[in-house]
Amino acid sequence: MRIENKQRKIKVTIDTDQSNFRTLNNKDEPILRIVKINHGNSINENHSMKTTQSADQIIYFLKQCADAIKIQTNNPTVLKGAEIFSQRIKSPTEKQFNPHLLPVIAQIEHLSSTPFTFNFQQIVTDMVWRPSPRTDEKGEQMALGIFNEVLDLGDIVVGLLVVDKHQSYPLHQHRPQELYLVLSGTGDWRYGGSEEFNTLVPGDVIYNHPNDLHGVNALDEPILALYVLWK
Q: Does the keyword Lyase apply (predicted)?
């Protein structure tokens, strides 16, 4: 399937060859692979409005992440955050928005295969991707996928962080507390008030207290992680 906007010279080519399959959760699933992205501001008119189907896919993906967080941790604070997250995604109101891609999103073809990546690939082109305000680069090496621009999630902030291999998301801090769920990629993370970096793998859950300095260095593959901020 090819999505193209000639006016803005945006092209997203997705390989949906049904001969390509990977096994996740004991079933075969077709691989969807973004082959090429030409930089631009939005996708064509056919994708300017999110459909109910795409919203359902996004909510399904978020519920998968919320369930995984609850399974992977016994930290009471993280479990409370996961429960707030679960409540906000039960039946959120859809927003009108224009999907927006950045060059780094082409690197999802290099993501390691995990139980999360197939469902992520179903929604990647139906999301709003923004450059991080914490760096000067423009989405070539890292990006944030902002679910709050797609769904009304109330008083929490939910998004995806993509960091290309061998790149660093800078140390930063903020007042809301935060959890991360690593979805794909191995990286060195600083978190939870520690001054050291620790290597985390897909499925790991981390927690940052308010104003904890935290960041991540991607290793030999891109990192994909979900974050949730709440007060």
A: yes
The rounded distance, in Å, linking the Cα atoms of 213 and 231 is 17
Number of domains into which the chain is organized: 1
Report if residue 225 sits inside a domain.
yes
Residues of the chain with pLDDT > 90: what percent?
Answer: 75
Distance of alpha carbon 94 from alpha carbon 16, whole angstroms: 27
Structure confidence by residue, pLDDT tens digits, 109-149: 999 999 999 999 999 999 999 999 999 999 999 999 999 99
Query: Do 182 and 204 meet the contact criterion of CB atoms below 8 Å apart?
Result: yes
Residue 154 CB-half CA count within 13 A: 12
CATH number, position 146: 2.60.120.10
Residue 117 within any structural domain of the chain: yes
Distance set, CA 129 to CA 40, 53, 71, 143 (Å):
11, 19, 28, 6
How far is it, in rounded angstroms, from Cα 65 to Cα 63?
Answer: 5
pTM of the predicted structure, to 2 decimals: 0.81
